[in-house]
Amino acid sequence: MPAGLYRALLTLAGAVVAIVLAIAISSVAILAAGANPAAAFAAFFDFGETPRAVVNGVTTMVNRAVPLFIAGLAVAVGFRMNLFNIGVEGQYRLAAVVAAFVGSTFVAPAWIQIPVIIIVAAAVGGLYALIPAVMKVSRGVNEVIATIMLNYIAINLAAFLVRGPFTGPKPEGQLTISTPPLPESAWFPNLNFIFEMFGLPAPRGGGLWGFLVVAILLGVGLWIVLERTRFGFDVKASGLNASAALASGVNPKKMVISAMVLSGAIAGLIGMPEILGSTHAYNSNFTPGLGFLGIAVALLGRNKPVGIAVAALLFGFLDRAQGPLQFANVPPSVIVIMQGVIVLLVVVFNEVTNRMALRSEERRAARQLGTDKPVEVAA
Predict the structure, then answer these.
(1) Most exposed residue of 160, 256, 279, 354, measured as fewest CB within 10 angstroms of its CB?
(2) Contacts of 8 (CB under 8 A, 6+ apart)
(3) What Rg do the C-alpha atoms of the chain give, in angstroms?
């Protein structure tokens, strides 16, 4: 069997075993909560009985997956450089509030206004990620510590801005505080026509976010940059061995800064699907935690855009089930337990399958050399 096919089958088998074990462990948690596991898992696939209910369920799942996919891409860029950008949470929150406010200060044609808002968000995220990058290359400060501390600053700074200088008019009876609303020229077109093409009703609310197209293009573009360009090779080489990269003419410090800024710029886009497609403002109830979930999505997707997309859809599928679970008298915390267990087990089984594939490659190399002694092969 070809080595590539063997490794792919091992990876697939490890993922399947991890998910099966996650279901078993989650069943124990459901029983401990006094609920029926069969009813709980049936609720996960309960999208409703009417076409509109099914459309709404699918839309909720995909809309949840879009920002998680972008968050996973942002984290994956750092991981490719062996950098742990834990600051994605703060970077996207700060970028979202600034971009929402800037977008509300002017009115222009949609083809100008929407790109300006997106560019502002990416610039703020990238500049904020530049801080820990400079601290690392100039003073050797660990990026994990720096980005965690910067998260607290960014989250609280965003809360201050939305309640202070960036506060918009508050309609009577509204409890949330938000930036001024974006003009309609800044509303990203939805993709509801996809459902209508098949004779299905349009989903409720903001519909299927059109930013899904941007996310797909972003994933394809990032794959090209990291897998098919010199920059991507330099990033990977610097992450694997900075000394060897330096000897071959690559500046590791420059690559640290480039990778962190790129990661932060992508992180800055995480809040754009919600702001441009639904809320049309940054408010005090803006969705939190997407940056931290992005770490789990990137790990589950093995830092590959396709894998990250599958992981984001899985998380979106689990999150969508919160409503049906409540109707089945199952605590929504079961979803968090399943997410954590799945990620943990997939990471463990990835390591196991990698070692199995490595040993298989060593045996194959030993057979080719005509000796019974295994030959060490680099992972």
Answers:
(1) 160
(2) none
(3) 23
Among 116-130, 261-275, 324-338, the range scoring the smallest mean pLDDT is 324-338
pLDDT at 86 over 70: yes
pTM of the model: 0.90
What are the residues whose beta carbons fall under 8 Å from the beta carbon of 33, sequence distance 6 or more? 330, 331, 333, 334
d(CA 124, CA 98) in angstroms, rounded, equals 8
Instruction: Count CA atoms within 13 Å of residue 365 on its CB side.
Output: 12
Res 203 pLDDT > 70: yes
Quote the pLDDT of residue 118. Answer: 97
- Cα separation of 317 and 36, whole Å? 20
The pLDDT > 70 percentage for the chain reads 96
3-state secondary structure of 178: strand
pLDDT for the residue 47: 84
CA quadruple 135, 139, 142, 148: dihedral sign: negative
pLDDT above 60: residue 373: no
Give the span between the Cα atoms of 326 and 328, in whole angstroms. Answer: 5
Task: Retrieve residue 302's tokens.
Answer: 């093995």
Instruction: Give the 3-state secondary structure of 251-297.
Output: CHHHHHHHHHHHHHHHHCCCCHHHHHHHHCCCECCCCCCHHHHHHHH
Residue whose token pair is 């050797």: 140
Q: Average pLDDT of 64-93? A: 94
The pLDDT, as a whole number, for residue 270 is: 97
80 contacts: CB under 8 Å, gap ≥ 6: 226, 232, 235, 236, 239, 259, 303
Please state the φ and ψ torsions of residue 175, each to the nearest 5 degrees. -90, -30
Mean pLDDT score, 191-216:
90
Query: What is the rounded CA–CA span in Å between residue 34 and residue 325?
Result: 13
Whether the Cβ atoms of residue 280 and residue 301 lie closer than 8 Å to each other: no
Judged against a pLDDT cut of 60, whether residue 334 lies above it is answered with: yes
For residue 40, give every residue at least 6 positions away whose Cβ sits within 8 Å of its Cβ, in sequence order, or none: 27, 30, 325, 328, 330, 334
Q: Residue 178 phi/psi, 5° resolution? A: -145, 165
